[in-house]
UniProtKB/TrEMBL annotation, chain A:
Gene3D superfamilies: MetI-like (1.10.3720.10). The chain crosses the membrane at residues 12-34, 81-107, 119-141, 147-170, 191-214, 249-270. GO terms for cellular component: plasma membrane. Residues 81-270 form the ABC transmembrane type-1 domain. This is Sugar ABC transporter permease. It is a multi-pass membrane protein.
TrEMBL record, chain B:
Signal peptide: none annotated. Keywords: Membrane, Transmembrane, Transmembrane helix. Belongs to the bacterial solute-binding protein 1 family. PROSITE patterns: TAT (PS51318). This is Sugar ABC transporter substrate-binding protein. The keyword Membrane applies. GO terms for cellular component: periplasmic space. Its main location: periplasm. It holds the Pfam family SBP_bac_1. The chain crosses the membrane at residues 21-42. It comes from the Bacteria. It is found in: Periplasm. It comes from Actibacterium atlanticum.
Automatic annotation (TrEMBL), chain C:
Gene3D superfamilies: MetI-like. GO terms for biological process: transmembrane transport. The chain crosses the membrane at residues 33-57, 95-122, 134-154, 188-206, 236-258, 284-303. InterPro entries: MetI-like, MetI-like_sf. Keywords: Cell membrane, Membrane, Transmembrane, Transmembrane helix, Transport. It comes from Actibacterium atlanticum. This is Sugar ABC transporter permease. Residues 96-305 form the ABC transmembrane type-1 domain. GO terms for cellular component: plasma membrane. Its main location: membrane.
UniProtKB/TrEMBL annotation, chain D:
Residues 4-234 form the ABC transporter domain. This is Sugar ABC transporter ATP-binding protein. Keywords: ATP-binding, Cell membrane, Membrane, Nucleotide-binding, Transport. The keyword Zinc does not apply. Pfam families: ABC_tran, OB_MalK.
């Protein structure tokens, strides 16, 4: 296609502008995380890059105190970091395993044809509209503020994504391959386990990463179902935000950076499949 | 919370450690780490004392033995530990801004309150912070769906009723009888037995542990009031001399006068009182309480709201009118922004929490003034209305950080003992002086303490107790959150011009009636009647 | 590729596996049942009890303050009072209205920006891949962190005021009007990339030769976009808008971190309202009634929408 | 309607040269086929004419006018895509009217022309139906009609018949010829099917590896291929092309084929081979229908002996595969006299034989 240099230049202007808007808040947070106290506010002038780069903000949130700071932190990031990792991973496992099995049954055996829409409905409602009974249940089974209680709800709310994503991957596996194996004497289980699963392995990995991102990003459920021991990173971040007062920007930024890294990295890894995941397989790229 | 950082960045930690080490070395204590384990610790006590902070001048004022409330608590713990009924750890949900008061050493050379407790009992205190406005939500979350995560809840005193009726708090009456805290001590504790009842009991039983002094106290910019040009201008404009106000009428006159004036510090706004959602209710309640002599109650004897009575509507109209003299964005102010307004000399007066002066008047360790208002602030008695030759000065008790024992705690007695220790007059006085947080003074002993006076300033040492004596409780029974929110919404609607004061009060009246009706079976009318009895009747000569 | 096991090895394998599971492995329907079971159990677990409890609570006026456990809520049976009350609760309708306002402003802006970006990226240009990745980043950042980022940006002493030359007391998050604007800006920042991503996928799905044909027929870029590209993207556009509208209706994290719904109730959306009713006012029965109503209304809308789509498609 | 001059056009994609130094003159109203194997650059050439691709070097002139600065929209070029690029989301009517609507032609005028065109293409009965419901054949008609309705200055067709079933392809071939006459427009037609090109085009441009091999009328190309590639590419069944070393022995010029077969050259073809003394290896070409059996018809006809390996019936005739040592000749037997296994003499008239330089593929002499 012919593109005149003028049009191309104009395109770059827009693209660069858009990129700048996207990067502005991100960059601000990242550079803020490396700025020492005096560079945080307009009071002594703002600069994009730290004049005296420092790691003290990270030091502070990991050790609870840092060189040159009087304030200290009673709870460091370590606990919430572990909590976020454990609950996100367990929730992901639950969602991916049950979603994979169920979608395979729906795709291959034609079972429960209403299941796809039912699981989709889980995503439709504001969680807060249905949370009271859930919290009561969780309290009843002793699941509040436990790793498994949070993992369980994570597994449930991300199940629709896992289910639909795996459904599209299974639909892409030609049924002939499975038939061929079955004709040669394989049981259904063996066909599933030895033939189909290996074929959809990349899809499975995509699905797991995608669901992990969703779980990691949760704030509300952890806010409602944890109190202290299994508080996750976003909840910790939010409480710390006010705990440290309105002005401890550097530490907040450092926290934000740490919380933001895994999903951004994983997200870029599965870029190709994001559309499929986010639209429940309605669209592919 | 803008204020906590004020304390955050004084001298660097290294410097800080250096000075405290030096102080400790001077008193023969060794380094900070050696300090906890040092056998020299016991030698730091004044004769006859068995516990308490050491290592600074005057520490003996906060030390105790087993004849004192704190000592009895420690003794009780020891007994529980011997019986195997004490926990290893007590976890406490606490408002963020107050944590430092328990965990930060004060003054130089001293340990923190937490360190003293842990040293003496071996029971670790695990503090989990939450924002002040939200903390009661978190409390209720734990009460309704939690699993014994916290041994201690803290939150606004007003919410005690809600917590008790939801079954979330432990009734401590037996413990109180057993361990005899000194809260009501006629010399050191609350000024009156009624006040003890108000702060520590609900429906006749002990539930709450008072850790704050949120009696809205009047502060003004003495340095501006006393200027001759200001005096002249005021006289010229109003025909009155500018003095500290005694009545709401005078308050409004001063507010009107200052609004839009510039006395060399930028444009001023006359009304510094809180008008925003949640926090502004205190201002309304204070004005409401003095509408009649000696008090105008929120409810009549039978539990019917007084909101849309003539006096109620008049109060609402005055309240709404006073909004025109507020600084811009006043509807978004929390106390922190209101403090800042006074520190920046934007408002001439305000009735507000007392740590306004703790954080904003005086000097930082590095010698810089804490704010522009340093040295200019004064304090006066609450205002009321003149009835004949008497004035019913009224303030209001609102928010007021209070601790409760979670009914899910496995060791309520041990937890009780910790809270008794923490809230007894010696420990609390010591903590109240600590600028690490916003627990405000309220016990008589607090106001006699030089360390408290040094942070809260001499001028407030008389007005705060006088204010306490003239304070009415805000709503403090089950249904409080709903009642407060209903009224709050309507007042906000009136202030922002969506409704007239009368319409707003009519609507609020209806909402309150509905809540009362629904809560009747839970004894809300009795609670209202009990609350009415705790209102002070003290009046002053005009 | 996987090796297809030979029948010989297969029989020996299955002979070893005796009993019920061996028959399951050989019966597709049975195995499918076991495959679906976990999902079904999870669904029932999260749907049946909660719905019943919610229904039960919603016809009482039980609150945790009642002093009786929730299962004894019948003692404070209130018929449909909660449902009647929610019809006339200005705070609920205010929250709903604000939610709709955020949706009504943010989603169309996201749509137009996303469409414009997709248009920029539909043809190849040097650097397209890198810029594409950059453009996608915001939607991958944890929403709570986005809230934090914009909290930092919109501080009075923060960079936005600094770079725009505004004074430090030009408040964003605590201003009656600007708080809403700030929240909407943050939402737009985070979710325009999602629109972009989906719309770009849709745009790339428009056959390029049809577009060429339209051009050769003399249609200007704009005419071809309106008449060829847009109609062909209809499904994609609907998907994108529905997805965003649903998510936007649920918005919580961002606002909760940036403004807590404040100042006042200026940024209080339906989710924040429910949160405050649950833990602030403790009106659990009322929240249950609102929740059920929302469930019902959304289900009806979804069902109508689906049947409409189904009719359209065939 | 216009003439097109393609002057020394080169197109490069990075390091890859898709079209090299192409020159073509297309007369007004001519029907030209671009013929070549896939990947030869014929489609690129057409895209450059349409303006879908930039020209790297050289120029393309329409009636002497360079349109490279003109937007595609304004070039007024009719283009029929290989898969028709029908707007499947629109009705048949809207497809036809698209080119007129975007030019803001009067409604009544649009209606008249659409109906006329639909009549002409005999899809009137489908006008109100969605285009997606059309059969492939109807889509083809619609695609042509949609392009024709805007009266383009030239008409480009990209393999328009390749998707059609065999019967309709033959019909459409004829139809295209008629249409071209009716429209009277310059048409350029890309195809890899030589029969289509031969039967339709006024002129054929044969392209290989981005280079123009030959440009001329079908007959010219058939009878007088300019090089070995063209000779090989055009004609069905294929021309016999026998490669070998040229050797002069006892006054006779022979083409020594690998494997032992020898072709004794005589007459015209001999002189053609010897016209360039630098050529040492050559390629001998003769069309199967020019080989005959039975009695020698002319003195200098070349005689060879071969074994009948395979006989393949094609209609009334049979294709004969003749094995001469390791070399295979293809001939036509129209008298049904041969049997498999026969060892027979056959004759090749030198006047109908062609001589090519093996190294360059160049035609010798002719």
């Amino acid at each position: 296609m012919k593109v005149s240099p003028g049009a191309l230049a104009l395109k770059y202007v827009f693209v660069l502008l858009a990129a700048a808007v996207v990067l502005y808040p991100l960059l601000w947070m990242v550079t803020m995380a490396f700025k020492p106290y005096p560079e945080w506010t307009t009071v002594s002038g703002l600069t994009w890059f730290p004049k005296n780069p420092t790691l003290q903000n990270f030091e502070f949130i990991f050790y609870g105190e840092a060189e040159g700071l009087v304030v200290s932190l009673d709870r460091t990031i370590v606990g919430p970091l572990i909590s976020s990792l454990v609950t996100s991973i367990c929730g992901t496992l639950l969602a991916v395993v049950s979603g994979t099995l169920a979608s395979y049954a729906v795709v291959r055996f034609g079972l429960a044809q209403s299941l796809p829409l039912s699981v989709l409905q889980l995503r439709l409602f504001p969680p807060l509209a249905v949370m009271i009974p859930v919290m009561v249940m969780w309290a009843f089974i002793g699941a509040v503020d436990t790793w498994w209680g949070l993992s369980l709800i994570y597994g449930i709310v991300t199940l629709p994504f896992a289910f639909w994503l795996m459904k599209t991957f299974f639909e892409e596996v030609p049924v002939e391959i499975e038939d061929a194996a079955r004709v040669s004497g394989c049981s259904y289980w063996r066909v599933f386990y030895r033939i189909t699963l290996p074929i959809v392995k990349p899809g499975l990995a995509t699905c797991a990463l995608f669901v992990f991102i969703l779980n990691w990003s949760d704030y509300l459920l952890a806010l409602l179902l944890t109190q202290k021991d299994w508080v996750t990173l976003p909840v910790y971040m939010a409480t710390l935000t006010s705990a440290m007062g309105g002005q401890m920007y550097g530490m907040k930024a450092a926290l934000g950076v740490i919380a933001a890294i895994p999903p951004v990295v994983f997200g870029l890894m599965i870029q190709k499949h994001l559309v499929r995941g986010l639209t429940f397989g309605a669209l592919k790229q | 919370m803008k204020t906590d950082t004020k304390k955050g960045f004084g001298p660097s930690r290294r410097e800080f450690l250096k000075t405290s080490t030096a102080a400790m070395a001077a008193s023969g204590m060794g380094g900070l780490s050696a300090f906890v384990a040092s056998p020299a610790f016991a030698n730091g006590f004044a004769p006859g004392m068995t516990g308490g902070p050491t290592g600074f001048e005057g520490a003996e004022r906060f030390q105790y033995n087993n004849t004192m409330s704190e000592g009895r608590a420690i003794e009780g713990i020891k007994a529980l530990q011997a019986a195997g009924k004490a926990p290893k750890k007590i976890s406490m949900l606490l408002t963020d801004g107050a944590i430092g008061q328990i965990t930060k050493p004060f003054p130089d050379g001293a340990p923190s309150a937490k360190e003293v407790w842990e040293k003496e009992t071996g029971i670790e205190i695990d503090i989990i912070g939450a924002p002040a406005e939200d903390i009661f939500k978190k409390v209720m979350q734990d009460v309704t769906t939690g699993d014994g995560t916290f041994d201690i809840y803290t939150g606004p005193w007003n919410s005690t009723g809600d917590l008790v009726s939801s079954g979330g708090a432990v009734n401590c009456s037996d413990f109180v009888a057993k361990y005899q805290p000194d809260w009501g001590d006629s010399e050191r504790g609350t000024p009156t037995p009624e006040m003890e009842q108000l702060l520590y009991t609900y429906a006749g039983d002990y539930y709450s542990f008072s850790l704050d002094g949120d009696f809205q106290t009047w502060f003004y910019l003495k340095g501006i009031y006393e200027r001759e040009d200001v005096q002249e201008a005021f006289m010229k404009e109003t025909g009155h001399a500018l003095t500290t106000p005694n009545t709401w009428e005078e308050v409004d006159r001063i507010s009107e006068f200052f609004t839009g004036k510039d006395f060399g510090h930028g444009t001023m706004y006359g009304n510094g009182n809180l008008m925003s959602p949640f926090w502004g209710l205190a201002t309304f309640y204070a004005r409401f309480a003095s509408m009649d002599f000696p008090n105008y109650h929120f409810f009549d004897e039978d539990g019917n709201p007084n909101l849309n009575s003539d006096l109620g509507i008049q109060c609402a109209e005055e309240h709404v009118r006073s909004f025109e003299w507020c600084p811009p964005d006043a509807l978004t102010f929390t106390w922190a922004e209101a403090y800042a307004a006074m520190w920046n000399l934007q408002i001439p007066h305000t009735a507000i929490y007392t740590n306004l002066v703790k954080f904003g008047d005086g000097y930082n360790p590095d010698g810089t003034a804490k704010s522009k208002a340093t040295g200019m602030i004064g304090s006066h008695l609450p205002v009321g209305r003149q009835f004949g030759d008497q004035i019913n000065r009224r303030s209001v008790l609102y928010y007021h950080i209070t601790a409760w024992i979670s009914s899910k705690s496995d060791y309520p007695e041990a937890v009780y003992l910790f809270l008794q220790w923490l809230s007894s007059t010696r420990t609390y006085t010591w903590m109240a002086g600590n600028p690490g947080g916003y627990f405000d003074p309220m016990q008589q002993a607090n106001f006699k303490e030089p360390l408290v006076a040094s942070t809260y300033h001499d001028y407030a040492m008389e007005t705060i107790p006088a204010t306490i004596a003239r304070s009415v409780p805000s709503i403090n029974f089950a249904g409080q959150t709903a009642l407060d929110n209903a009224l709050d919404e309507e007042i906000q609607a009136a202030i922002t011009g969506q409704k007239t004061a009368r319409e707003a009060m009519d609507a609020a009246q209806k909402k309150w009636e509905r809540i009362i009706k629904r809560q009747k079976r839970n004894g809300i009318v009795e609670a209202i009647q009990a609350s009415r009895k705790t209102w002070p009747t003290i009046v002053d000569p005009a | 590729m996987t090796d297809i096991p030979t029948p010989a090895s297969q029989t020996t394998q299955s002979e070893k596996r005796k009993g019920y599971w061996a028959t399951v492995a050989r019966d597709g329907q049975k195995m499918g049942f076991w495959f679906i079971l976990p999902t079904m159990l999870l669904l029932l677990f999260i749907v049946v009890f909660p719905l019943l409890m919610q229904l039960y609570l919603s016809v009482t006026w039980w609150t945790p303050l009642e002093g009786i456990p929730w299962y004894r809520a019948w003692e404070v049976f209130s018929w449909g009072e909660n449902y009647w009350f929610l019809l006339t609760d200005p705070r609920l309708w205010g929250a709903l209205w604000r939610t709709v306002v955020i949706m009504g402003i943010a989603v169309p802006i996201q749509f137009f920006l996303g469409m414009a970006l997709a248009y920029l990226f539909v043809d190849k240009f040097p650097g397209r891949k890198i810029f594409y990745s950059i453009m996608l980043t915001p939607m991958m950042v944890v929403p709570a962190v986005v809230g934090l980022m914009f909290f930092l940006l919109f501080q009075g002493t923060g960079p936005v005021n600094d770079h725009l030359g505004l004074p430090a007391d030009f408040s964003w998050l605590t201003d009656v009007n600007r708080a809403m604007i700030s929240v909407i800006i943050a939402d737009i920042w985070q979710w325009t990339p999602l629109m972009f991503l989906i719309l770009l996928a849709g745009m790339l799905g428009v056959p390029s030769d049809q577009l060429l044909a339209a051009r050769l027929l003399g249609g200007s870029n704009w005419q071809n976009f309106l008449k060829i590209v847009l109609p062909r993207m209809k499904t994609v556009i609907i998907i994108a808008l529905v997805l965003r509208a649903v998510e936007c209706f649920k918005i919580f994290d961002l606002i909760f971190i940036m403004t807590k719904g404040g100042p006042g109730v200026q940024t209080e959306t339906i989710s924040l309202f429910l949160y405050k009713q649950t833990f602030g006012e403790l009106e659990w029965a009322y929240v249950a009634a609102i929740g059920l109503t929302i469930l019902f209304v959304l289900s009806v809308i979804a069902a109508k929408g689906l049947s409409y789509m189904a009719k359209k498609n065939g | 309607m216009s003439s097109i001059q393609i002057n020394n056009v080169t197109k490069r994609f990075g390091d890859f040269t898709a079209v090299e130094d192409m020159c073509l003159d297309i007369e007004e109203g001519e029907f030209v086929a671009l013929l070549g194997p896939s990947g030869c650059g014929k489609t690129t050439t057409m895209n450059m004419i349409a303006g879908l691709e930039d020209v790297t070097e050289g120029s393309i002139l329409f009636d002497g006018q360079d349109l490279s600065g003109t937007k595609i929209q304004d070039r007024n070029i009719g283009f029929v895509f290989q898969n028709y690029a029908i707007f499947t989301h629109l009705s048949v009517y809207k497809n036809l009217s698209y080119g007129l609507e975007v030019k803001k032609v009067d409604k009544a005028e649009i209606d008249r022309r659409v109906k006329a065109m639909a009549d002409r293409m005999s899809i009137s009965h489908r006008l109100d139906q969605p285009a997606s419901s059309l059969s492939v054949n109807e889509m083809q008609k619609l695609a042509i009609g949609r392009s024709a309705i805007v009266e383009p200055r030239i008409f480009l067709l990209d393999e328009p018949l390749s998707n059609l079933d065999a019967g309709f392809r033959a019909y459409m071939r004829a139809e295209l010829k008629v249409l071209q006459h009716e429209f009277g427009q310059t048409m350029i037609y890309v195809t890899h099917d030589q029969i289509e090109a031969m039967s339709l085009a006024d002129k054929i441009a044969i392209i290989d590896q981005g280079k123009l091999m030959q440009y001329g009328s079908p007959l010219e190309i058939y009878n007088n291929p300019a090089n070995r590639f063209v000779a090989n590419f055009v004609g069905s069944p294929r021309m016999n092309l026998i490669d070998g070393e040229l050797r002069e022995e006892r006054g006779t010029l022979r083409l020594m084929v690998h494997g032992g077969a020898e072709i004794p050259l005589s007459g015209q073809v001999r002189s053609e081979f010897s016209s360039d003394t630098k050529v040492h290896s050559g390629s001998f070409g003769i069309r199967p229908q020019d080989i005959y059996f039975g009695a020698r018809r002319a003195e200098d006809d070349i005689e060879m002996h071969g074994t009948v390996e395979v006989l393949e019936r094609v209609g009334p005739k049979r294709l004969v595969y003749l094995q001469v040592l390791e070399t295979m000749f293809l001939a036509i037997d129209d008298q049904d006299q041969l049997n498999v296994g026969d060892e027979v003499p056959f004759y090749m008239p030198p006047a109908k034989s062609l001589a090519f330089d093996l190294a360059s593929g160049r035609r010798l002499g002719g």
